[in-house]
């Protein structure tokens, strides 16, 4: 990590950003596996890139957290925020629908018929 600091001891943000760009792609690919095919990888990469830029700007080494740990949180958060902004259904409605579907799945074998 020493190569990321200038002679004055200041973190070189451009070098930091360049070094961690592959992390954005890695996280985007990990997230894309769990998403519908309609979600474009490029959209995730763009949002993740913004998250990385945000991480580079806001990172404080004095907090004791490794940059990679901090950056992954910011990158994934930016990607999830982008996905949420495109969805008109609130998260609570999706959660309730998932719980109802799970309850119906548990009841069908018990009742021996489709749950209504």
From TrEMBL:
Single GO molecular function: sigma factor activity
UniProt keyword terms in alphabetical order: DNA-binding, Sigma factor, Transcription, Transcription regulation
GO terms, biological process: DNA-templated transcription initiation
Pfam families membership: Sigma70_r2
Chain ranges of the RNA polymerase sigma-70 domain: 43-56
InterPro entries hit by this protein: RNA_pol_sigma-70_dom (IPR014284), RNA_pol_sigma70 (IPR000943), RNA_pol_sigma70_r2 (IPR007627), RNA_pol_sigma_r2 (IPR013325)
Record's keyword annotation contains DNA repair: no
Cross-referenced PANTHER family: RNA POLYMERASE SIGMA FACTOR FLIA, SIGMA FACTOR F FLAGELLAR
Full protein name: RNA polymerase sigma factor FliA
Gene name in the database record: fliA
